[in-house]
Amino acid sequence: MPLLTSDRELLKQFRLGEREALARVYREYAPAVAAFLARGFSFSSKGRTLQFNGYHQPFDIENAVQETFARAFAERARLAYDGLSPYRSYIMAIARNLVLSELRRREVAMSQLVKVVDDGATDSAMEHLAAASVETISEGPAEPSVEAELLRQELTRLYQAFVDELNPGHREFFIARFEQQLTQVESGKRAGLSHMQARTLEKKLRKRFLKFMQSRGYLEGYHGSYAAVATLCLMLMR
Questions:
Q1: pTM beyond 0.70, yes or no
Q2: pLDDT, tens digit (0-9, with 9 covering 90-100), for 194-216
Q3: Which DSSP state fits 220?
Q4: Which residues have a Cβ under 8 Å from the Cβ of 169 and sit 6 or more positions away?
Q5: Helix or strand run (H / E) with residue 176
Q6: What contacts 5, CB < 8 A, 6 or more positions away?
Q7: DSSP class of residue 210?
Q8: Would you say the C-alpha torsion 13, 15, 19, 20 has a positive or negative sign?
């Protein structure tokens, strides 16, 4: 059952902005929002179909996820959610609107992430986007550029190298926690750890992973939070 529509007490706490309720909603929906932002979506503008190809840098995905939830958890947005329709659809709409706002605001910087889908287009995608009000019509699979695909392959190779060099217990915990998106407690149980040991190990592995990637020239400015590492795993394992 969808989280907020099936638990009315949680919905009440969520609307009040209770920290634990917000954290639970974040844990439930952040991986799906990250996947959506990496995958991209189609939208219509002035009768023409355009395609947002998705963010390909983990840092960009994490920033967009955090901004999406910052907007979603604002008091006005919390109270606007009706508690009847799936919250997943609600949060995805916020993520989509965030992207479209960024596309309009940063035309030059974002231009490589948008393409015209229909064959009869003559204007550039960004000229068309800037001049029109935008209505999303559907989600669709993105076709990443050659450069983006090569980057994904290189990140996947490095990610696998990092996982392979972990000892078996640490590897089992890392995969359970970040690839399979299990809770810290559940991941610790798989590796035979107490909750305190699992918490300590997670922090250690996040720092180690970040240092590993940065030593190879990637993820500069990346903070290595749980959401950041989980987002990268989700993107590389899809």
A1: no
A2: 999 999 999 899 889 888 888 88
A3: T
A4: 191, 192, 193
A5: none
A6: 11, 83, 84, 85, 86, 87
A7: H
A8: positive
